[in-house]
Design a protein that fits this description.
Blueprint: E1 2-7, H1 17-25, E2 29-33, H2 44-48, E3 53-57, E4 65-69, E5 73-78, E6 91-98, E7 101-109, H3 120-139, E8 145-150, H4 174-184, E9 189-190, H5 191-195, E10 204-205, E11 217-218, E12 221-225, H6 227-230, E13 233-238, E14 254-258
This protein binds one DNA strand through loops.
DNA sequence: ATGTCGATACTTTATCGA
């Protein structure tokens, strides 16, 4: 079973690129972030025509997450628990029976948090605290679990072209990185790092200043696996090609392959 | 040093968020 995550930076702007990538990569489950669309505006037919079921948690103009799945959803949960006053659409979770077993998958769009001296940074840290609490609850279920998405956190020096240039950024602050470590330390596995821990496996290149051409990237899109999922991890990949297409997203797809549970 | 893109609205240019 192939599970992918991609911050597409606008579903309408990616109405050609996303189906093209789906046909080429053939993932079973896809977690999307920054759809920048309300539920009713999401072009579900584009993906239903390719054999996917669609679950959306949208918002007008900004944010918004979705999950595509070849197999129907057993259950869909919209919104990260823990704060009824948080109206930003940044989390959707689904239970899917596929490949002879059940898997729980979350599509995460973690707050950016910039600028650090604004209220956006404490919002990011509070959101991460809630995510840690929810992940602890989910891990207690002892299921195959994949927490996938745009974490807006650069975990280490090997995940950024120029660490010094990012020292003041919310994505690279010690508080952000400490919470990401705390999340992983609950017992989750960073799928990409588990298969290849080399530096420079970037998933995002800014639109500005020729970042793509200079390979001035960062690794901020992650797939974190519960032990029951990590034990089935067969491989991962970062598809860089779509970053070079016409009108690209600034992020590229990240995917992992899980073996069937009876193999 | 600068450089971009997507969505929105008191819209055809400016603003916001990233």
């Amino acid at each position: 079973m192939k599970i992918a995550t991609w911050n597409i930076n606008g579903i309408k702007a990616r109405a050609e690129a996303l189906p093209a990538w789906l046909k080429a990569a053939a993932p079973d489950i896809v977690c999307l972030q920054e759809i920048k669309s309300v539920d009713e505006g999401f072009p579900s037919a584009l993906f239903e025509d390719l054999g996917y079921n669609v679950a959306v948690h949208g918002q007008k103009g900004f944010n918004g997450v979705a999950i595509l799945s070849r197999t129907p959803f057993d259950e869909v949960i919209r919104g990260l628990p823990g704060d009824k006053n948080d109206l930003q659409a940044r989390y959707i979770e689904a239970v899917i029976s596929s490949g002879g077993g059940v898997v729980r998958v979350a599509s995460i769009y973690l707050p950016n948090g910039n600028p650090v001296d604004s209220d956006k940074f404490p919002y990011k840290l509070g959101w991460m605290d809630r995510l840690i609490g929810h992940a602890r609850d989910l891990l207690a279920l002892e299921e195959p679990l994949v927490l996938a998405g745009d974490y807006n956190v650069i975990p280490g020096n090997g995940d950024v072209h120029d660490p010094a240039a990012w020292t003041g950024d919310a994505l690279f602050q010690p508080e952000s990185r400490a919470r990401f470590r705390a999340l992983v330390n609950l017992g989750l596995t960073d799928a990409v790092m588990a298969c290849d821990d080399s530096a420079g496996q970037y998933t995002f290149w800014d639109y500005q200043a020729g970042a793509w051409q200079k390979n001035n990237g960062i690794r901020i899109d992650h797939m974190l696996l519960s032990p029951q999922a990590a034990d089935r991890l067969a491989g991962t990949g970062i598809d860089r090609e779509p970053r070079g297409w016409e009108r690209p997203s600034d992020h590229v797809p990240v995917w992992c392959e899980l073996t069937d549970p009876d193999q």
